[in-house]
Design goal:
This protein is an alpha+beta fold. It is built from ten helices and 20 strands. It binds S-adenosylmethionine. Keywords: Methyltransferase, Nucleus, S-adenosyl-L-methionine, Transferase, tRNA processing.
């Protein structure tokens, strides 16, 4: 099977995504046996909060269809790099979709691109690159951790990317990328990216290309930028991607007539849920987790929003549906530093600059 294509029906050997709710999404391998904690081969039965599923029973089901669990239900989805990023087994820290989408855009990665990446880590970014470069592109990905290289290679093959990726066990800071003048883009997620930068520039095509380095700390960014400049790279840009989610909610505001606030009992409507935070939390959880159970909470919630969509309230306030940002936002992951290797950059003195 392939993450980059699509097919209708689940077969043995596929990786499928079991979606129960926003915080219950799992990647399952469709195979008869799995190894348990004691190292024994046992039937592949996956346990969830809503009961178990015999994974081989998924064979023959359509992607996107509903599957019954012993105490509820879920949906089986076709795998994508985005779903893989939120379900993959973590062997390292990983890049998430907001950073990944910025990397793909800024590095101008598309069908046919040749990309170098270090380190491979858990393969989160690699999957997105592999889909973006298509069948005509090539990813050279490197890690100095032997076991991670082995596991990532097996995963790429299982996910249908075997023919467009070369996974090598290598210390790129000491040994470089082993390719010269071939890459359109190089991506680094390393503790000391500055040591790999001269090699990264050598890997880029003589006609030019793009480099990106991901670092959690601003001190790493400062040192990376100094080396990028000393190597003669241009268009340096450091970004931090913070995704700001909006939720659609009903709120109330006072009516204003001829610049005057209409008489009102209170300016903003405080719902029963807002007075009782626990109740509100429970309702939201039920709403987002609704797929797993057969309660009607989710549809009730939608009906309530639709009913209270727009209109005047008894207290004179105007109630309407709008987008509200979350009070808590997912925090800092790291900084992305981009730079361009200009066409014809002299490469003979690169190794001594860093
Ligand atoms: C944070 S992880 C990369 C995660 C990856 N970007 C992802 O999205 O899954 C960093 C990886 O770099 C590898 N690494 C660190 N220094 C390296 C070096 N000098 N050469 C090759 N790999 C290196 C580590 O073994 C680790 O697996």
């Amino acid at each position: 099977m392939s993450f980059s294509g699509f097919k209708e029906v689940i077969e043995e050997g596929d990786t499928v995504i079991l979606y129960i709710g926003v915080s219950q999404i799992y990647a399952l391998e469709v195979k008869p046996k799995v190894i348990n904690k004691n190292g024994q081969g046992v039937d592949n039965v996956f346990q969830t909060k809503y009961g178990s599923v015999k994974v081989m029973d998924l064979v023959g089901k359509k992607y996107g269809s509903r599957v019954n669990l012993s105490k509820g239900w879920g949906q089986v989805l076709y795998p994508t790099p985005e779903l893989w990023t939120i379900t993959l087994p973590h062997r390292t820290q990983i890049l998430y979709t907001p950073d990944i989408s910025m990397v793909l855009t800024q590095l101008e990665i598309g069908p046919g691109s040749i990309v170098c990446e270090a380190g491979t880590g858990s393969g989160s970014l690699s999957h997105a690159i592999l889909r973006a470069i298509g069948a005509t592109g090539k990813l050279h990905t490197f890690d100095f951790h032997k076991e991670r290289v082995k596991v990532a290679s097996e995963e790429f093959i299982r996910h249908g990317f075997g023919d467009r990726v070369i996974v090598l066990h290598r210390d790129v800071c000491d040994e470089g990328f082993g390719v010269e003048g071939v890459a359109d883009a190089v991506f680094l997620d390393l503790p000391k990216p500055w040591d790999a930068l001269p090699h990264a520039v050598s890997a880029i095509k003589t006609s030019g290309g793009r480099i990106c380095s991901f670092s959690p700390c601003i001190e790493q960014v400062a040192r990376t930028c100094e080396v990028l400049q000393s190597l003669g790279l241009q268009e340096l840009l450091t970004l931090e991607c913070l995704a700001r989610e909006f939720q659609v909610k009903s709120i109330s505001l006072p009516r204003v007539i001829n610049g005057q606030k209409a008489p009102t009992h209170q300016n903003t409507h405080v719902s029963q849920e807002e007075k009782q935070p626990d109740l509100k939390k429970k309702k939201v959880e039920e709403c987002v987790e609704g797929a797993g159970s057969d309660t009607n909470t989710k549809s009730d919630e939608h009906e309530q929003i639709a009913a209270g969509n727009k209109g005047q309230q008894g207290n004179g306030d105007f109630r309407f549906t709008t987008g509200i940002t979350q009070l808590k936002m997912p925090g800092h992951t790291g900084f992305l530093t981009f730079a361009s290797v200009p066409p014809g950059l002299a490469r003979n003195k690169l190794s001594c600059v860093a």
